[in-house]
Amino acid sequence: MDERIAQHLDRAAATASAHAAVLGRDRQDAVARVGSAHHAETLGLTVSRVHESTGLFDRRYEPSMSVVLRGRKRSIVGDDDQVWGRERFIITPVDLPVVAGVVDAAGEDGFVAVVWRLDPAVVGEVVASMTVPAGVAVAPGSRPSGAVSSLPRLGSWTAPLADAFARLVGLLDAPEDIPVLFPLVSREIVLRLLQTEQAPRIKAALDGTGPSVVAGATALLTDRMAEGWSMERLARELRVSESTLFARFKEATGMTPAQYLKRTRLGEARRRMVVHGDTAAQAAAAVGFRSASHFSRDYREAYGRPPAADAVAVRGQLAVATAL
């Protein structure tokens, strides 16, 4: 890793570690930690820290930039299965069902990660304001802008991007500066992201400078997952052609609509069994599976265990699920 990038990420890691610390034993420190949580929310940041590896948990990621600052993480998005650390980052341009877990807790320092919420309105503003098309000015050695399906899902840092990101995290130490600096640094980060090879993936989530049909499709498939969806019906609901919907959806999410729906259904079925105690049959029916055997086969393929056995195992690990 470039020395300048490493220095910037070291700064971000030190700040994130401090603000992700467990609530202190005394009242005064506890109040300070609560304040940190409030400032993180204002900045659109979720800061996590765990001290041991975990199992795989279903998470629903809103549009965001995910960064591992210490340790390593496994993320599964559709058929894309990656183990990664601070040398890369992941852009989630629209709401996505992700399976993730910590595979390396980085010794005494623990696993530290930050997720920054991407505001589609800000992305649209920056794209509209750029004089150089997004994706043209990329880092040396990066792939040129092109079809998203040919791009690596893991993004490559540039020194300007790492610096801007470190300054964003650094605002946790300067809450009085947030009202003035946060709007500026958030736009700078979006600009720097659009100057990387990930620009096509970010832009795929927009139509012009507004939310895309992909966002509409993910909302329908999530909110009405139990319904019987086909590509024809989904395109008709969104008033676009099937070919346009398929291409844009695949570009932005890395999945087809059918893959997205299956992953969403499996994640919700797992949640119902773990949290509410549903049986496998109850959970499968609630999310739209018409065949119990089909559900069991897909579930085992996704999570490595039969539904009932997996639900029992996951209940014992729920305490760390929010750190992913």
From TrEMBL:
- One Pfam family for this entry, by name? AraC_N
Q: What is this protein called?
A: AraC family transcriptional regulator
Q: Which PANTHER family match?
A: ARAC-FAMILY TRANSCRIPTIONAL REGULATOR (PTHR43436), TRANSCRIPTIONAL REGULATORY PROTEIN (PTHR43436:SF1)
> Taking every annotated instance into account, which residue ranges of this chain make up the domain HTH araC/xylS-type?
215-313
Q: InterPro entries per the record?
A: Homeodomain-like_sf, HTH_AraC, Tscrpt_reg_HTH_AraC_N
Q: Is Chloroplast included in the keywords of this UniProt record?
A: no
Record key words, sorted: Transcription, Transcription regulation
On whether Cell wall biogenesis/degradation is a keyword of this UniProt record, the answer is no
Transmembrane segment boundaries: none
Q: PROSITE patterns of this UniProt entry?
A: HTH_ARAC_FAMILY_2
| UniProt organism field | Curtobacterium subtropicum
